[in-house]
Amino acid sequence: MELRDFLIRAHICSQYYGGSVKNVAYFMNEIQKLPTEEEFIKLLKLSEKKIGKYMAYFLSDGLTKEVEENKNYGGICTIFDEDYPVLLKEIYNPPLVFFYNGNFSLLNAPTLAIVGARKHSPYAKEVLKKLLPDILDEGIATVSGLAKGIDSLTHKITLSEKGKTIGVIGTGLDRTYPRENFELQANMEKEGIVLSEYALGQKPLRFHFPARNRIISGLCQSLLVVEARRQSGSLITANMALQENRNVLAVPGNINSILSEGCNELILEGAKPILRAEDILEEFKI
């Protein structure tokens, strides 16, 4: 078995039973060979009860079938692959394996991540319709999370302007969350790319979404927050972007609106205020 195939099996298996697949990947990368069973068990750092279940499934025909189903459904990229996205590989905790449908080359294109409130105001839509056409005309792809609100709005406006967009989801590629985005997700797989570190069948569990957000911030050169409440998930993503040395931008808003509190505070803390498309293009040296 090749290192790549071993890692894919370990990654999928860990989504059921846990285990430190990162240790396994680093070990294989360093010595360029598969671990022995004893080494593998030690690297996973699982309890005796869990390791029995993990190894039983890891060696099973059931897992072999599941791996083939994922391969047949779309593409699979691993941290060992030469074409692994350059920016994503730079982050502190890059996904060891991710699954995708769409135009893989977009993952190495100039990218602007856009995040914000799930329940946004009409102001947010006006802002995106004003800013995005000029951004997209320069060949910059948008990145967001295919969630309700600003995410969906970003993807829809990008597609309507014939631009390219990247969606990072917190489920398997065969699922859509929220369900109302089924058609949007299908269109993005044709016109852009949708990716996930979760294998087919994986549900939208709560802890998947903070993990997804690190990929959104990891894929971009700059991240724009359009509307965000104080202590929102969007601000967490912005902080992740800062930690990864990405440019953080924010659209200022009404000081009386709770939907603008997060953006206005980001600006107070040093995020670049965005008033026009040119303010964003400057970050891409355009």
UniProtKB/TrEMBL annotation:
Record-linked Pfam families: DNA_processg_A (PF02481)
GO biological process: DNA-mediated transformation
Ranges where the Smf/DprA SLOG domain occurs: 76-284
Membrane-spanning parts: none
Family recorded in the similarity comment: Belongs to the DprA/Smf family.
Domain of life: Bacteria
The name this protein goes by in its record: DNA processing protein
